[in-house]
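Sanity check

After download, print the first record. It should look like this:
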Amino acid sequence: MRLSTGAWWGLGTAAAIGLTVWFGTILKRDQGPNLNKEMAFDQKLGAQVPMDAMLRNEEGKEVAFGSLFGERPVALMLVFYQCKGTCLLEFEGAMKIFRALRVDDIGKSYDVVTVSIHPRETPELALAKKNQYLSLYNRRGSEAGWHFMTGDEDQVRKIADSVGFKYYYNPDKDQIVHPTGLVVLTPEGRASRYFLGTEYSSVLFRDSLVAARANAIGPMEQRTFLMGCFQYDPLTGKTRLHVWRALQLTGAATIIALISSILVMNRRYSRSRQDGLNIRLREISQGKEDSTGREA
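Expected structure tokens:
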């Protein structure tokens, strides 16, 4: 039994709907718990960071957080070094504004303290990241002003909580969820200004350094959205969006769509040829054309 073009399109539509339902079911199954409430970046302007929090520097030496402060303002970044998501965008956005300041250099006009929020990351990894980004920054003396730190979870959380950086970490599944942004701190360690997300204004950043240097507290960031990052252990945890599964299902949908299109086009072509042949046979039978194609 031959199917009409409409029937082929109907079958293709039914297949697409079925695939969509399957796609949604698979993603729903792979979806982890709703952790939106576990992530926030509250702007605590004027808040004092804990100077007694103990961290480890790139050499593995334990130092007090307060020892990283002096006469210069500090840009605080809370990330984790092996993040493959928004942390990379955050570093990229930070590097843009750091490099855009032609006169104000890290280690001369301000310092940067990058703290890993992942308790399993090591000083060796912090040192590798420091070398990577210092080579990109490429300004003399910056190695003394840009610190890449690690630390125990309770000590890092003291710092994060003081500036309103709320993140989630599950040690059993090695799951971590966190917001993005940086905080400019005064030389005394008070939150002077927030930059949320991954894209920052170099002009506003420079203004914030001037204000923080004078121990002034800047205005609140007016963004109405929060950009965050969801990272899960692919072996033991579930993901908010299982990318590999999505790619597989999207590929299957593409193949089905291509096969359906080929079948429909082939059906149309065959039908067109058959219609043409029928017309010629009809004309021959009516004596309008002989078998060679010439008019009678």
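If your output differs, re-run the checksum step. Summary of this record's structure: The domain at 36-240 is CATH 3.40.30.10 (Glutaredoxin).
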